[in-house]
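[Meeting: bench + compute handoff]

Bench side (C.D.) handed over the final construct sequence. Compute side (W.E.) agreed to return the predicted structure before the next meeting so the bench team could plan truncations. Sequence as handed over:
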Amino acid sequence: MINFSELLKKCDQLKNADIDKILFEGAYPVLFTMADSEKEYLVICPVVNSKEMTWIVSETSFSNIIELLTNKITIRDAFLAVSDDKICLTYDGKKMETTIEKRQTFPEELLPDVGEFIDAEDDEFEEEIEYYRKREQYAG
């Protein structure tokens, strides 16, 4: 089984980051946050097939995550907010390729669909929202 945290740490920007909270998963984490001592990242895995896995990583804020979890912004908007630089990681089973793209030039086909919300039930992410609110208070 793949250790996703160790795999993602092969990216220089994430070498000190750990998976913080998994927000949605199937057989693997699909939407989650990572954190290091300085930054919080929002990560999504839009491509998984027999040839590769791809992750999009964007620096984020606690308020951005909370807005996402309370259906105030779409998943796409959450990724396009906060930071202009987006990290794209592609793993082919042997090596990890890292590219950094600007928000304006990021490949559309990798971004979540326009208008797609996380569609959380009223209390579905209550624990996670409280967690991020506490971290936001502590950081601020």
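W.E. noted at the follow-up: The mean pLDDT is 90. C.D. will use this when planning the next construct.
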